[in-house]
Specification:
Helix content is 55%, strand content 11%. By secondary structure, it is mainly alpha-helical. The strands form two sheets. Strands 1-2 form a two-stranded antiparallel ribbon. The longest helix is centred in the N-terminal third of the chain and has 21 residues. It is globular.
Length: 170
């Protein structure tokens, strides 16, 4: 399932000792937040171990200001997140949320996305009740969905989906 795939992906990118050390850091941050209300900020690459291929492709995209994701005032500064966000991600169980989803749902993924793997998207899709649609774009990865034809195709799908399923409710 999703948990097994996530564990496998983690172990590919972080040693077991590295993962335990990172979890200890998140736990220490949780204690610090409880005592002081303060959380540590870290670079996103300390949280998510992106593949070298993703990082290379994303750096080209973001250097040109073409990315719709992770916009920041200073593009050369590292993107930073709170370790409190990591704790929330670790506590979140997308399978439970998917089973409880009570609205139409559109899932879009790239077939070769190594950040939000298509297999995970498909597993969550299978758990969602009610009206749903899944689109897996052949040959596209995470970055391909953030610009150019991939982004335009996503926008069209989303507009069509919202018009068909949600516009009448609002």
């Amino acid at each position: 399932g999703i948990d097994a795939e996530a564990s496998r992906a983690r172990s590919e990118r972080r040693t077991e000792t590295g993962w335990r050390d990172f979890l200890a850091r998140v736990a220490a941050d949780r204690s610090r937040r409880a005592a002081t209300g303060q959380s540590e900020q870290v670079a996103i690459t300390e949280i998510i171990r992106f593949s070298p291929a993703f990082l290379a492709k994303y750096s080209v995209l973001s250097a040109g200001g073409q990315s719709s994701a992770m916009q920041k005032p200073n593009p050369s500064a590292p993107q930073r997140f709170w370790l409190a966000s990591v704790a929330a991600m670790l506590d979140f169980h997308p399978e439970d949320a998917a089973r409880r989803l009570n609205c139409p749902a559109l899932f879009i993924s790239g077939e070769v996305d190594d950040v939000a793997r298509a297999a995970h998207v498909r597993e969550l899709y299978d758990l969602v009740p009610g009206p749903k649609q899944i689109e897996i774009f052949p040959g596209l990865d995470h970055v391909d969905l953030d610009s150019g034809p991939g982004l335009l195709r996503q926008i069209k799908l989303a507009v069509d989906w919202f018009t068909r399923h949600l516009a009448a409710k609002f």
